[in-house]
Specification:
This protein is of the alpha/beta class. It is 44% helix and 19% strand. It has a 6-stranded mixed sheet, sandwiched between helices. It is globular.
């Protein structure tokens, strides 16, 4: 692995034009479509610090939350394509591309994909006092009494919300998906029995699970999470074919020199292989996972298609 990383770095440097061989010679900005303090922000700062250590310049996080990530993406795309302004692309960006009829940019044409950073799953949780001990218990109850059970998620069109909609269709159940403003409000609704199950990211419920107030039923990925190896997947729990995996990646504006893309990609591979980085990300529920630029673009396009189908099937109005 180390030899491959060194070889990639050497190849990237050799391919650089003279004007790019000093990159980076000043701080690099990474624009995030999320606020400070969340999982994406904390994980990005961990990675940014390590990139800075290896490339000799600070990699600075700039938070630009809101509008489905459109403003953050525009800020990156308006910057000079010189490698000094980068952006975070996520499965949420793919949802935005599926949810909006028109965007002020075309991610597949305007994003120079660099690499995925990591993947993380959703979890399905119930009140610790709930009669539903397994996911199939919940599904069975929903089939026995259609329309009587509620599932809480954050806002309509979020990964959590669409993940719940996908469960609804994949399991063939009639439940009400109830949107809340934030995760703590869903937990309150779960405790009051306003909703009987919630769908969220692990970090959002970890404290309540550790305190014994909530119980996890399943995780959404294609395989068991490394951070929760004893928790079954939704497919293992009885809903065959169900799979939702969230991911984060990095992109640059179109026209960024390929030599710079290659250098950042190679350095990210090195950073994401570090044991301390892998462990810190795993504590956030993220599995470190680099990729090639092409693999990230393929993943992005596949997710746009997937979420477009879920949005249409759920009857969610496009914007």
């Amino acid at each position: 692995m180390l030899l491959r990383i060194v070889a990639a770095l050497v190849a990237a440097l050799a391919a650089m034009p003279a004007s790019a061989q000093t990159y980076p010679d000043r701080p690099v900005k990474i624009v995030l479509p999320f606020g400070a303090g969340g999982v994406a922000d904390v994980s990005s700062r961990i990675i940014a610090d390590k990139l800075g250590e290896r490339l000799g310049q600070r990699f600075v996080i700039e938070n630009m939350p809101g509008a489905g990530g459109i403003g953050a993406a525009e800020a990156v795309l308006k910057a000079s394509p010189n490698g000094y302004t980068l952006g975070l692309v996520t499965n949420g960006t793919a949802i935005t591309a599926a949810l909006f009829n028109r965007l002020p940019f075309d991610p597949t044409a305007d994003f120079e994909m660099i690499s995925t950073l990591g993947t993380f799953d959703l979890v399905f949780a119930v009140n610790a006092a709930s009669p539903y001990k397994t996911l199939i218990d919940f599904v069975t109850a929903a089939k026995v009494a259609p329309g009587t059970l509620n599932v809480g998620t954050v806002n309509i069109g979020s990964t959590q919300n669409l993940g719940a909609e996908l469960l609804k269709s994949a399991a063939g159940i009639d439940v009400q998906i109830v949107p809340f403003r934030n995760s703590p409000e869903i937990v309150t609704g779960l405790v009051r029995d306003d909703v009987q199950m919630m769908v969220d990211f692990p970090a959002a419920v970890k404290g309540q699970v550790d305190a014994g107030r909530l119980r996890l039923l399943a995780t959404s990925g294609p395989k068991r999470s490394s951070s929760m190896p004893n928790l079954v997947t939704v497919a293992e729990g009885g809903v065959k074919g169900y799979e939702v995996t969230s991911w984060n990646g990095m992109f640059a504006p179109r026209g960024t020199p390929s030599s710079i893309i290659a250098l950042i990609n190679a350095t990210l591979r090195e950073v994401l292989a570090l044991p301390d980085v892998k462990q810190r990300l795993l504590e956030l529920g993220i599995e470190a996972r680099p990729s090639s630029p092409g693999e990230l673009m393929t993943l992005f396009k596949a997710d746009v298609k997937k979420w477009d189908e879920v949005i249409v099937n759920a009857g969610i109005e496009k914007k």
